[in-house]
Amino acid sequence: MLLCNASRVVMSVAVVPLAAQHGWSSSFVGIVQSSYLWGYVLSSMVGEALADRYGGKKVMAGAAALWSLATFLTPWAASQSAITLLAIRVLFGLAQGVAFPTMSTLLPKWFPTHERATTVGLSMVGFHLGNVVSFLATPIIMSHIGLAGTFAFFASLGYLWISVWLLNVESDPIDSRTIRKSELQLILAGRSKSKVKGSKSPSLRQVFSTMEMWAIIIANVINKWV
């Protein structure tokens, strides 16, 4: 998740020299910055379904490959036309939109119930750390290898990550050849405890009557808007 957000933030830094280089207006800069959301919204709605059908390992790897390709092509697209640039940014958003739903599918399979809050928290720490790392590193990298080189650098990190991911991660621990038997039993036992026979999904009224739900809502409002 660190690399996911780091790749996203590159454009936030690089858009300043790109705008100066190509003579973009402030309104067009705003369109470029928001265009990835057009694809992000669409793919985020189907990401979990894709992960359930094809496996989180393949979906995450495919998504990272696409957003790394879009990252690499961004400087070239900016030199071609506005339509080409926006198309690449939409592709970037489509690829990134499946990241969160896919991780939400993978984590419950790999961690027992009592560890899920911690693993989700660590995943989110990594995501936000990517923001900090990219904001600090991008200007430094840009000063050494240039604008196009910076995008190529983060794209290369993406493909390096994919190779490590494909070699070491499975969609389900049952398919892993490296996991210890005792660890697998612990994970599977944690899964079974979270499933109660005959239980029904809570109603919306029950969900919104819990302090935990309102804590999540307030935290997200503060994070996004305040």
UniProtKB/TrEMBL annotation:
Keywords, in A-Z order: Membrane, Transmembrane, Transmembrane helix
PROSITE patterns xrefs: MFS
Membrane-spanning residues: 59-77, 83-107, 119-141, 147-167
Cell location: Membrane
Residue ranges of every copy of the Major facilitator superfamily (MFS) profile domain listed in the record: 1-226
Family to which the UniProt record says this protein belongs: Belongs to the major facilitator superfamily. Sodium/anion cotransporter (TC 2.A.1.14) family.
Protein name, per record: Major facilitator superfamily (MFS) profile domain-containing protein
